[in-house]
Amino acid sequence: MSLLDVYLDKATYLPGERPAITVILANRGQTAFVGEVALDLMHLMDTVATARVPVDLSAGQTITATLSLQPPADDFRGYGVEVAVLDTAGRAVATAATALDVLSNWALAPRYGFFADFGADEPDTATRAATLSKYHINVVQFYDWMWRHYALLPPPGEDLFVDGMGRRLSLTTVKQKIDLAHRHNMAALAYGAVYGAEPEYFAEHQAWALFKADGAPESIERLFYIMNIAPGSPWNDVIVGEYVKAVAELDFDGIHMDQYGFPKQAHVSGKDGPVVDVADAFGPLIDRSAEAVAAAKPGAQVIFNNVNDWPTELTAAHDQAAVYIEVWPPHDTYYDLQRLIVRGKAAAGSAKQVILAAYVSPFCLTKDQPEKAPQAEEAARLASAAIYANGGFHLLLGEADGALCDPYYPKYATMRPEFAAVMREYYDFVVRYENWLADPALALLPYDTVGEAGRVRLGIEDYSSKPRKGSVWVIAREAPGYATLSLVNLVGVNNTLWNVLHEPPTPQRDIPVTLRVSGPVASVVLASPDANAGRPQALDFQTAGDQITFTVPALDRWDLVIVTYGV
Fold first, then answer.
1. What CATH number does the domain located at 106-194+239-359+395-429 have?
2. Does 2-102 match 106-194+239-359+395-429 in CATH topology?
3. What are the backbone angles phi and psi of residue 470, rounded to the nearest 5°?
4. Is CATH 3.10.290.10 what the domain over 443-565 is classified as, yes or no?
5. Helix, strand or coil for residue 349?
6. How do the domains of the chain map onto residue ranges?
7. What's the pTM?
8. What is the mean pLDDT of residues 356-372?
9. Per-residue pLDDT at 322 exceeds 70
10. Secondary structure of 437-484 as H, E, C letters
11. Which of 8, 195, 417, 518 has an alpha carbon within 20 to 30 A of 64's alpha carbon?
12. Three-state secondary structure along 406-418?
């Protein structure tokens, strides 16, 4: 008996919603099989709901079974979904696992994905959306879906149109993808640059544009000209009006507000015009846009792109769903990823999650050099571990099994099927343990917490609270009631650059851990996306005064240790 797949009907669930879980079974044996499919909903080590359905398969038969159960109504709660095929004696003959979560708002755990293909008569649109749902992607950026940057919707009656980059697109396909996203409980955000305009618009509205000191217009290679977004500017009214149209007419759930990272300062209307500080205008535009789209569609939200962390400290506290940072050099290392997340959370007062758009450029190499796929995949796994272990979220996946490797999203790469299966396990893990990864109350402990004189000590030669090649990176975090240790394996890794080809780290075994704790310890639980389908494993521990000791049996790439306080 084989369990071929287990997946959910939606990417996430509102409190009170009842999930449907699909199980695909194949009887590979020579005789009929009679038994049942057992489903357990787990929150860490606790079973909170169950379901059972009988099955009867003849030899060689494949069937699809659907089960349903009711999760607790608690908001922001992740669960493991354990599936077992039992024979008539109650023995498990096949097992599998996935995950689900209950969220009142996707922004509580924003697993951001993308759509970038909107051609006419796309044959597999439904499959692309369903695949993203299997990764639990709960919010999708519709990248370059629009007619023009200054007029997002095509002229009335034009379903087929050519966008500003020369791509032939279909408004029908855009609408289909919005509808499919909604069916899977995925929010659909419309890409909309805050100040980009095509040449024909600039030619007619030069007084609304920004210029360099020498009088040349600010632009991206004269493809998109940069308009003045300051409050009171006519362009401010234009772009907010376009955002409202996208939400009101196409049923988008909000706007992904993009910028290009420049200019920092510019002249309005020409070299003799007043100088504006562009960063100062972002916050008011975010707030105005958020208010306008929410008025057009209750619940609609915006996200703003802080390009290379600029100007996160000025925008994070404004009215947006999450802190979004597009990562570029010199933010080249795993440590840089950690600091971007920590600073982003701090800038928002720990009230918002942080999303990193960290494009894994090695995937682009695999298009012409498929032999480099394993090293590109290692880069993706380690980067994802670095981001999620520090409480962030990673914009990477979209268009079914696509992975972003370029800032122009239509250039995405397609993952190999065997690696797509790995990433499903990683995203299952992120959902299952979101309450111990993305809890806003979790705080990174000081770096000197880890080490011979600190609270966390490992009985191995090389470990560190900062990522270092050849070592185990220990990320120690704590919240009221529990502490977590993420161990990221950099042993055998040649450098700590996140966006380069990597060989697999050298597996580690039997790592002794000593932890000075804040109170009595009730349990120590280990889980990894690299082993046993992410299932939790209770670890034995010994207590001596204010310290506990335990052993981590194996570390491949990323382990999560959860220490729960209590009697």
1. 3.20.20.80
2. no
3. 80, 5
4. no
5. coil
6. 2-102, 106-194+239-359+395-429, 443-565
7. 0.97
8. 97
9. yes
10. HCCCCCEECCHHHECCCCCEEECCCCEECCCCCCCEEEEEEEECCEEE
11. 417
12. CCCHHHCEECCHH
